[in-house]
Each structure stands twice: as C-alpha cells, then as structure tokens.
Amino acid sequence: MLSSNSPARPPALFLSHGAPPLVDSPTWVHQLENLAGELARPTAILIVSAHWEAAPLTIGSTDPRTPLTYDFGGFPEKYYRVQYRSPGAPDLARRVAAMMPDGEPIAHDPDRRLDHGAYVPMTVMYPEADIPVLQISLPTLDPERLLELGRRLKPLRDEGVLIIGSGFTTHGLPFLRDWRPEAAPPSWSAEFDAWAAERFAAGDVESLIRFRQTAPGMPYAHPTIEHFAPLFVALGASDDAEQRPDQVIDGFWMGLSKRSLVLA
C-alpha cells in the first residue's frame, strides 16, 4: 500500500496530438489545458508517440540539452523554432529498462529527444517544461504486444508517472481534400470516429484490437496504423483495459478525429 506521502496516482492517456499547427486551434488548446488542469501534477511523464517506431524498444535521450526532433516538413519556420527544455528523466529510463522481460533487448538513442507527437501536447499541458519527460519508441504495431507493454509499464503510475500514448483517432492524410482546420470530416473519418466512440463506451477491447478488420472507414481512416497503435499502450497501462474510459476530447480538426481518452 502507498504511504500518505506517495505521489498522486495519475491515469493513463490516449491523446490525438495533431500536427504542429494544432497549437493554433483555440478549441484544442482549451480542451487540452482543461484536461491538464484536472490532473494531479505528475512526478514524470512517459510518452509513446506514433512518430517513433523502432525495435527493439528504444529509450530516448535523458539529456535536456538534446535538441527536439522536428520530424515534419513543409510548415512555416516558426514551428521549427519551438523549444521544450523539460528535465531529462534518467531514473525513469532505468525503471523502464528494468521492467522489460529478462533477455529482451533494450536500445538507447541518446541523440533522439522528443518528437512533435510528444512535445506539441506538452507545450499546452505543461508549458513551463518543469516536469521530467521521457519518450520511448513503439517497438511493434501489434495491438496485443502493445497492450502487454502497457501492462509492464503500469506500475509506474503508482510512482506518479503519467503514461501517454500519443497518436490520432483518424489519420488518413493521403485522402484529405480540404485542408482547412475547420473542414468537415470525410465520411471515412466520421464513421471510424463514431465506431471508436461506441467501442470505447462499451469497453470492447477485442473489437479495438481488430480495428483493421472491423472498423468502418478502413483503410482510409488509417492507411498506416501507427497513429492508432499508441492507444493500446495506454489501454494496457490502465487498471482495466475493458473499462469505459472518459472521452474527454472529441470533434475534428482538418477532418481528422481528435477523440482522446483518460483511462483510470
């Protein structure tokens, strides 16, 4: 049992993080600020982002002097000047490595700091950049293996660590025709979002695992699946993957679903 001096136990989150220009959306910023305001201050933050696939599991830089990873192109120069100098998290990195199965290789990439799937939401949720943040890679896109990864990481929540899977509920960029932030969602995005909302409300993990076969709007909603994959790390890190999570953010940006979850 945790002592009375133990840190508050944070939930796990699945965030639809958006491209860098999402920080210019007052609605999204307000939604994310409200979410952060309802959370107890974490001791550290562990993020799995759709934008870093690497096997074996790879632990990013714990040195705050390492530059951010600007893993995007074609945006105005101001988005490449964003800084987020959060403290490194070497202790958390060691804890994560120790939680992996004996004999399973673990890699370290001291040159890779937070990518935009990690730092964009952090600039809104914790703009003072005063909480240690660590990013680890997506070592696989297999939902069941990612659920198991989340289960292994779950004890970190007892230490006050906020675990975040950062992706996007729909991400069919090749099929967008209207690139305005306020664009109406294409049918494939709206249909997948409605399906996901129903599956979350039902705690239907089995259907979520089989989303490629069962969800309407596929494969247009996810022509590649890395943006839905972080959901399964968050589900695994929750107390019950079959719970009915709080769907704290919904709606669309540029026609893509922003649906985001808080998992107890």
TrEMBL record:
<dbReference type="InterPro" id="IPR004183">
    <property type="entry name" value="Xdiol_dOase_suB"/>
</dbReference>
<keyword id="KW-0479">Metal-binding</keyword>
<keyword id="KW-0560">Oxidoreductase</keyword>
<dbReference type="Pfam" id="PF02900">
    <property type="entry name" value="LigB"/>
</dbReference>
<dbReference type="GO" id="GO:0008270">
    <property type="term" value="F:zinc ion binding"/>
</dbReference>
<dbReference type="GO" id="GO:0008198">
    <property type="term" value="F:ferrous iron binding"/>
</dbReference>
<keyword id="KW-0862">Zinc</keyword>
<protein>
    <recommendedName>
        <fullName>Extradiol ring-cleavage dioxygenase class III enzyme subunit B domain-containing protein</fullName>
    </recommendedName>
</protein>
<dbReference type="InterPro" id="IPR014436">
    <property type="entry name" value="Extradiol_dOase_DODA"/>
</dbReference>
<feature type="domain" description="Extradiol ring-cleavage dioxygenase class III enzyme subunit B">
    <location>
        <begin position="37"/>
        <end position="242"/>
    </location>
</feature>
<comment type="similarity">
    <text>Belongs to the DODA-type extradiol aromatic ring-opening dioxygenase family.</text>
</comment>
<dbReference type="GO" id="GO:0016702">
    <property type="term" value="F:oxidoreductase activity, acting on single donors with incorporation of molecular oxygen, incorporation of two atoms of oxygen"/>
</dbReference>
